[in-house]
Design goal:
The structure is a homodimer. Chain A has one domain: 3-Layer(aba) Sandwich (Rossmann fold), CATH 3.40.50.880. Chain A contains eight helices and 16 strands. In chain A, helix 3 runs parallel beside helix 5. The first copy, chain A, is globular and about 50 Å long. Strand 14 of chain A pairs antiparallel with strand 14 of chain B. Chains A, B: This is Cyanophycinase. Chains A, B: Exopeptidase that catalyzes the hydrolytic cleavage of multi-L-arginyl-poly-L-aspartic acid (cyanophycin; a water-insoluble reserve polymer) into aspartate-arginine dipeptides. Chains A, B: It comes from Pseudoluteimonas lycopersici. Chains A, B: GO terms for molecular function: carboxypeptidase activity; peptidyl-dipeptidase activity; serine-type peptidase activity.
Chain lengths: ~280, ~280
Amino acid sequence: MCPSKVAEGGQRGWIVPIGGAEDKENDKRVLRRFLELCGGDGAEIAVIPTASRLNETGDRYEQIFGGMGARNVHVLDFDTRRDAHERNRVARIEQASGIFITGGNQLRLSTILGGTPVAQAIRACNAHGIPVGGTSAGAGILSEHMIAGGDSETETPRANGVRLAPGLGLTNRVVIDQHFRQRDRLGRLLAALAYNPFAIGLGVDEDTAAFIGPDNVVEVEGSGAVTVVDADGLQFSSMAQVDGDSPVCMLGVQLHILTAGASYNLVTRKASAGELSTVKE
Amino acid sequence: MCPSKVAEGGQRGWIVPIGGAEDKENDKRVLRRFLELCGGDGAEIAVIPTASRLNETGDRYEQIFGGMGARNVHVLDFDTRRDAHERNRVARIEQASGIFITGGNQLRLSTILGGTPVAQAIRACNAHGIPVGGTSAGAGILSEHMIAGGDSETETPRANGVRLAPGLGLTNRVVIDQHFRQRDRLGRLLAALAYNPFAIGLGVDEDTAAFIGPDNVVEVEGSGAVTVVDADGLQFSSMAQVDGDSPVCMLGVQLHILTAGASYNLVTRKASAGELSTVKE
């Protein structure tokens, strides 16, 4: 699935994958910045808690966004593919000034929402400038190529170390992995890129987000880091020659660890320390 | 401590860090190749089990190297710094055609052997062409800057994520970390390089070795991978600005994952897929 077409003269909305476990009690840096992009106290947020099997997940985000001043928060759950065709709920999404997808199981998101009017509405909204954010599973689903499963706790990529599936396809420039540092997922992100290095890997730590702007510059917010894995200069990948648990040989991968304030341009593939490089000692 | 001076016209011996848990029962690829470098059936191996508190560690390697055909294997344990001054034991090291340091606690190696005639003998032997190998703690001690401790299970480097100590100093070109994939140590290896990017990080998986030749080309043997972390092109490190648990921003790190057959030149900093690139499908 390719990203929805952006109208001439228009701009795609922000895409905001969050690594999970974002702060919900204290300064709420990540969620606060997302809310600001959605219009702050004028925001109409649609929350999609479909990935989660916990009844309280949607209500929790309703309280958090409401507590930070959003004008309206609508929790829209979809338990079946039929739900995802219901006209009233689709209309709620179309009227939102921001869409937020909670964590849980990303295969619930892809199997229930994939190809439905809800998925089409999310894509169309984003193409028309509406910010779409997601945390944990809700982050993974945002891109075209989604990590559906694979190894955690390993840094060496292995032949069968990752399973990919189609996601919502808001962008095809990145493959997103979440809980990155906490679950040690570099190996599976590398394995995903070893198949086809055209995309850029974004490994997002917990309580951290990659704010992907309409200009395709990634800005980092939160207490952790976003690890950018750029395989554009890859000299060699042995992915075609190995199988099973065998490690994959990959030569020439570029790595950037971005903390809050740093940025990365997905078009030019250049990292910038931004304000960090001018911090006074 | 700088590497011992190699005599004019002479060649340094191989330096062989092994990531721990190398195969000792089946094909013994890693230990077999090490033994070959030491002279095969003419080899006189000195085994130093000082890192380990288990009495059987030395005997185990004596049996393994003996079973593979080494002419002589001498287990030389050092429990105190005084032991490491004993003339007879030092002479055993000086007569060896290969020196092998077992796993355990690398601070036992550095505190008991550091600066003693044993350490001097190991350095001098290596400078005169004798191969020196070590597994796990015995791998970490080989280089000048040794990782003495720090975070495991994290991929994001953190300000206090690594503690360095002086090692045996056979080479100052690399910083070695072991059990690399199994204990998820990219974060601490990156943190070590964030202090000063001059060295090259070698993250060695279990049952895998980096055979560092006299020409400073690293060849990989074993069932896992060696992750080469090259920070030579580092654009920015925030290590001077952060502290505690804060993640470190690092832009422009080069990563190569080498499997058996691939190599990396520590001088030119170029990776090669070697025979892997010509494997028939």
